[in-house]
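Q: I'm a student working through a structural biology exercise. My instructor gave each of us a protein and asked us to get a predicted structure, then write a short paragraph describing it. Mine is SDR family oxidoreductase. I'm not confident about reading structure output yet, so if you can add a plain explanation after the tokens, that would really help. Here is the sequence I was given:
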Amino acid sequence: MKTALITGASRGLGRALARELARDGWTLIIDARDAVALRSAAADLGRGTVGIAGDVADAGHRAALAAAVADAGGLDLLVNNASTLGTTPMPRLAEQPVQDLAETFATNVLAPLALIQAVLPSLRERGGAILNITSDAAVEGYETWGGYGASKAALEQLSNVLAAEEPGLAVWWADPGEMRTDMLRAAGEDADAAPPPEEAAAALRRLVIDRPPSGRHRAADLAGAR
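A: Happy to help. First, here is the predicted structure for SDR family oxidoreductase. I'll explain a few features afterward.
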């Protein structure tokens, strides 16, 4: 039985992708900052799902996730989905508080790398995969999205280099596109007009199943390739 660790899985894309993998029989370890929402997600995903509440930017929480991986006997897939928008309302770069940006990078870049480091031996042993959730804001010049986009661009390059350094693993960085989520709503966008996260999750499931070579993917392209 395969095991996946998915961060930020209490709602939105993380929860939708966890549901897809649960249907395929995966053992799941999930996390989120909201303990109540996480318990609801774990119950929805079924028996055997391990939910650990906490912040991925916290070293103690990441240690708990790594311990859960060891208890499960290893790891086949790490999904770094948890992230933060940073400063809201989202400012232009001229007004971007630098300390806020440092905290954004701590969550969106440093925490994923630290978690990768913590579970890398298990992933190497199983020839596993890493899926880092990024954004079109990493490659497009959207006004007010500079702080968040810069953090996602850093995550993309981290993924790119990791793919070169770990040829025994599949390393994917994927742009899910706009989704009907609380995060998009918090960014001031019309979230109600966006497709539900279940659509992107189904596309990312295809990525996991087909296991293409390491690289950047868009959920829209994966969905169109069916």
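A: Here are two points you could use in your paragraph. Strands lie at 3-6, 27-32, 50-53, 77-80, 129-133, 170-175, 215-218. The longest helix spans residues 98-126. It's a good idea to check both against the output above yourself.
Q: Great, thank you!
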